[in-house]
Amino acid sequence: MDRLASFGNDPFDKPPCRGCSSYLTEPYIKCAECGPSPFLLCLQCFTRGFEYKKHQSDHKYEIMTSDFPVLEPGWTAQEEMALLEAVMDCGFGNWQDVAYQMRTKTKEECESHYMKNFINNPLFSSTLLSLRKTKDSRFAEGAIPFKPTDDPPRPTFDSVLSRDMAGYMPARADFMEEFDNYAEWDLKDIDFVDDDSDILRALKLSVVDIYHSRLKERQRRKKIIRDHGLINLRKFQMLERCYPKEVQELYDVMRRFARVVGPIEHDKFIESHALEFELRREIRRLQEYRKAGIKSFCSAKVYERVKRMREDERRKRTMLCDVLQYIQDGRACQQWLSKQAAIDAGITPAVTTITVSATGRRSAPPLNLTGLPGTEKLNEREKELCQVVRLVPGAYLEYKQALLNECRRQGGLRLAQARALIKIDVNKTRKIYDFLIKEGYITKA
């Protein structure tokens, strides 16, 4: 006996029993020798040995049932078909309604099974990829079809991508909060009755016409968002970053005019301006070559190399000014000496005076306290703290006194209280707080 699947859940989709003419329910029997039209029997007629014309009770038969697993052990073929039909009826993402229609599985089971076997299954992905390649080859010799925007992603609720999409629900093509979201409130109390006067009826019809105009504006804005691909904000921002800075500024200014032109025309407009920017930059470069008396591209290469060398020499001269600015800072002097050694070794040094800490974060050089008011009131450890934190002595003394007064008043101080008391960078507050704790000026609460 073979056990085959009948992928129809509705008994009205199958032929009736040949014996009693009743609608078939699984499992039922199919004769393997009678044909070509299927000879089907219910279990009751099969156990009675029903025979009709050429069909005999000793013929080979097949048990038709879908009560066996296909993709996972806990899911039968009948449940797989029921899940697909429920998703088609209720829409992708409405798992509560899908589970209610299936009756045998919970919302979480339906979602996890569908995502695992029908969305993220590599077998179906490869099949869809081959179908896409076949479709692309079909249009290879003809015109390339243009699609203004891809189908928007379907993120989970309350995820980062869902917030970026402004509450857009792809399965329903609606937003959680539509434009002019309370337009329907003006209609909720309107009721047309037979005894309305002509003026009242005309007034109600005017309100309905106004509501229709507001709906049209809502649909117009939604169409603009979909056509220009504005739903997937991250993808739109990545596309915008591909242009130079000048073109990005133009993109931002011209975005308001996208509503009056189509997506293709708007993209062509931006691309044409990006091309114009590249041409203008190339023209300026060629004009610089002509002004320098260059007539060949070989000479232009030599000119660019000499220009870079000239800029390197100018950078060497400016580094001396950097050292003179921080001449009383030993770390800055050591940094300049390292740069000079790199220049002598033929290595291009870094131009900036910003250093990189062990954690990978950029940090500025220590603050020079020479001549600043309040420096004479600090001890050596406090001076070192102000240099590292880059805090002027007057501000440090003010913050220190405020923390000391609060600690005496409460008998102790927490870091959160210190951050609430002095409104500066939280990292600087932590360093000041830890320093005062270590030196014994304040105590922890």
From TrEMBL:
PANTHER family: TRANSCRIPTIONAL ADAPTER 2-ALPHA, TRANSCRIPTIONAL ADAPTOR 2 ADA2 -RELATED. Gene3D superfamilies: 3.30.60.90, Homeodomain-like, Winged helix-like DNA-binding domain superfamily/Winged helix DNA-binding domain. InterPro entries: ADA2-like_ZZ, Ada2/TADA2, Homeodomain-like_sf, SANT/Myb, SANT_dom, SWIRM, TADA2A_B-like_dom, WH-like_DNA-bd_sf. The keyword Zinc applies. It comes from Seriola lalandi dorsalis. SUPFAM superfamilies: Homeodomain-like, RING/U-box. Residues 12-69 form the ZZ-type domain. It comes from the Eukaryota. Keywords: Chromosome, DNA-binding, Metal-binding, Nucleus, Transcription, Transcription regulation, Zinc, Zinc-finger. This is Transcriptional adapter. The keyword Zinc applies. Residues 358-445 form the SWIRM domain. One of its GO terms (molecular function) is DNA binding. The lineage of its organism: Eukaryota, Metazoa, Chordata, Craniata, Vertebrata. Residues 70-122 form the SANT domain. Residues 75-118 form the Myb-like domain. GO terms for biological process: chromatin remodeling; regulation of cell cycle; regulation of cell division; regulation of transcription by RNA polymerase II. One of its GO terms (cellular component) is nucleus. It is found in: Chromosome; Nucleus. Signal peptide: none annotated. Its main location: nucleus.
